[in-house]
């Protein structure tokens, strides 16, 4: 099978939003009865701004006229540290392959392309949040479990 890996443009905004909602539903095991309208609105604004200012790169994987995979990377700045003197960071996100297309190397190739973009920017501090299914891919790629980071969970009612 031959797939087209394409960097998404602002003209594909609605497709990106739709794909992001699909990814969130799959990753969080949410059925269609769970409303994500607020997330959808914020996602649309995020893509509009971040695609235009270069703070996010989204990839879409095509099989003919069908999107079968996706991945993205967000770039951001924190204060410089001893281990990261530039303070530049990247966050891999929105990695997803449609179930019928899994085990064909799509996620690995998508991750490779995203990591190349990160490398072009000279960023060495890269993180991600992995689902149980994605964990083995990221470990094989060389990602390691973080030991010194903590998270304050948002309270959802």
Structural write-up:
This protein is α+β, with helices and mostly antiparallel strands and 157 residues long. It has a single domain (4-141), classed as Aminopeptidase. The protein is built from 4 helices and 5 strands. It has helices at 13-28, 37-53, 106-120, 135-141; strands spanning 4-7, 56-63, 66-77, 88-97, 125-128. The protein has a 5-stranded mixed β-sheet, with helices on both faces. α1 (13-28) packs across α2 (37-53). The termini are far apart.
Overall helicity:
25-40%
Number of helices: 4
What is the domain total for the residues? 1
Sketch the topology as an H/E string, one letter per element.
EHHEEEHEH
Number of strands: 5
* Approximate shape: globular
CATH superfamily: Gcn5-related N-acetyltransferase (GNAT)
CATH class (first level) name: Alpha Beta
Rg from Cα: 16 Å
pLDDT averaged residue by residue? 93
Portion in beta strands: 15-25%
**Largest sheet report:** 5 strands, mixed
- Strand order, sheet with most strands: 1-2-3-4-5
Straight-line N-to-C gap: 45 Å
User: What would CATH call the architecture?
Assistant: 3-Layer(aba) Sandwich
């Amino acid at each position: 099978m031959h797939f087209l890996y394409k960097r998404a443009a602002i003209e594909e905004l609605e497709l990106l939003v739709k794909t992001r909602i699909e990814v969130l539903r799959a990753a969080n095991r949410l059925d269609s009865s769970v409303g994500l309208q607020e997330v959808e609105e914020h996602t649309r604004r995020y893509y509009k701004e971040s695609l235009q200012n270069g703070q996010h790169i989204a990839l879409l994987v095509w099989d003919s006229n069908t999107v079968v995979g996706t991945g993205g990377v967000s770039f951001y700045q924190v204060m410089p540290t001893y281990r990261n003197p530039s303070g530049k960071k990247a966050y891999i996100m929105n990695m997803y392959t449609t179930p019928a297309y899994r085990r064909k190397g799509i996620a690995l190739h998508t991750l490779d392309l995203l990591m190349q973009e990160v490398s072009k920017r000279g960023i060495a501090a890269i993180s991600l949040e992995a689902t149980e299914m994605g964990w083995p891919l990221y470990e094989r790629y060389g990602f390691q479990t973080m030991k010194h980071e903590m998270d304050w969970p948002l309270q959802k009612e």
